[in-house]
Amino acid sequence: MTKNILKIALTALLVLPLGFAISARAAVPPNWNVTGSYVANFNYLSTNYPHDISLTQDMSGNLTGSGGNPAGGTHVNSWVTDSGSVSGNAISFTAHYTAPAAAVTPLTTMTVNGTIATSGAMSGTWSDNFQGGARSGTWTTISGTSSPIVVSTSTPSLAAQDFGVVNYDTGTSTGMLKGYTAGFGLTNTTFANATSVVVKLYNNNQLLQTNTLNGPNKGLVTGNQISSPFDVSGTFNYVTDGYWTNVRESQFGQSLAANKVVATVTLTDGTVLMATNTAPTGDPTTIFATSTSNGGGRDNDGDDQNGNIGGDDHHNGTSTQGVGDDRDGDNNRSSGSGNNGGQGRGDDFFGGFFNHQGDDHGHATSTPVIPAPTSTPPVIHHEDDGGHKAPTSTPPVVLRGDDNGHQASSGQGEDNNNHGGNKGGNRNGGGDR
């Protein structure tokens, strides 16, 4: 009976459909990283059967994988591993068949043992219990090689490298990275010897984002350098990228610049290495999700979230030293008292007085309001409802008007409802007009 032969074709980014969980742990630290794709000849009764083999190894030497025969084509015979490990120069795993039906009922299990040569090639023996029998043979990889894990007797260290603002397209599947990247390098060891890699982004001591290297592709990071991406306003897809798990705080850099990044690497022997970079390059305002300014923006809460200039749109007179806006197009700004009066130059829903009359969209008109005499007129920069700058060449005079039926303190009042008096009259009919 022909031996079921397998192919293991490693994919760098995805776990294969015939994936599996590994419970065994490497007895001793691995000298090799066998993550990769291979073709192996499985010999049975003096005949070689080429198999595809796909293996993924984690930082502790544990294996996952799958395979099938014939190599390079649709697998008539296929299997997935149940457990496996690399210890020193030795590799071993067990697997069960998922096809054909004759190998599924009763279930056929296979045991594979081998040795990794200095060239990175692998060879050894196999055995299974197909249809309740006992079959065995040898196997040898004919394509694909494993990578050595270099262990240094010198003291390992971690150093910060690049850290800065980036804005570029990483590809159709991973999207636009608009944020920061931070690079770190190991000396006298490699990331293949790391059991944990965590990189954190800060503004001073405020945590913005955390990246943890635990994606399906973490086993591919075997060199001594690493780069960690922190997206702020782009479309970078961490899941598709397959390396990092990204956790964002409520403020993750949308309007707060990152100025520190800290990496922590834990090695297989328990050594913890840390490195910090506090010298970012680039302009962080170019990747902010929202911009901030001192201009008068408004929101419907009336809480003046957008800057230093701007009163309360729905709750009058609550701003300080600012000029707000309104929604009924009467003059679009009020320099007079709102419902609460005080020092704030608030606006309201129904009217008010602005030193330069405006249209429904906040554009200044050519007809000025004759100001009452005043001593030192303040110069106020106004912005209209649409974000347009109002004229500021002639300093306006603050006139206190009445809009909601309250007595004005002094000076002339004006609104679009033709109420109010020229000496602080009442909106509801008081005063002479």
Provide a descriptive summary of the structure in words.
The protein has helices at 101-104, 238-241, and strands at residues 32-33, 36-44, 47-57, 63-69, 77-87, 90-99, 109-116, 122-128, 135-143, 147-148, 157-169, 176-187, 194-203, 206-213, 225-231, 244-248, 260-267, 272-277, 356-358, 364-368. It has two helices and 20 strands. The strands form five sheets. Strands 2-3-4-5-6-7-8-9 form an eight-stranded antiparallel β-barrel. It folds into three domains: 32-148, Lipocalin (Beta Barrel); 157-287, Sandwich (Immunoglobulin-like); 293-433, no CATH class. With 433 residues, the protein is mainly beta. Helix content is 2%, strand content 35%. The termini are far apart.
List the helices and strands and how they pair.
Layout: E1 32-33, E2 36-44, E3 47-57, E4 63-69, E5 77-87, E6 90-99, H1 101-104, E7 109-116, E8 122-128, E9 135-143, E10 147-148, E11 157-169, E12 176-187, E13 194-203, E14 206-213, E15 225-231, H2 238-241, E16 244-248, E17 260-267, E18 272-277, E19 356-358, E20 364-368
Antiparallel strand pairs: 1-10, 2-3, 2-9, 3-4, 4-5, 5-6, 6-7, 7-8, 8-9, 11-12, 12-15, 13-14, 13-17, 14-16, 17-18, 19-20
Number of strands: 20
Poorly predicted runs of 5 or more residues:
1-26, 291-433
**Order of helices and strands, N to C?**
EEEEEEHEEEEEEEEEHEEEEE
Q: Quaternary state, please?
A: single chain
> How many individual helices?
2
Q: What structural class do helix, strand and pairing data support?
A: mainly beta
Largest sheet: 8 strands, antiparallel, barrel
Structural Rg: 36 Å
Rounded to the nearest angstrom, the distance between the terminal CA atoms is 110 Å
Major sheet strand order = 2-3-4-5-6-7-8-9
Shape: elongated
- The portion of residues assigned to helices is under 10%
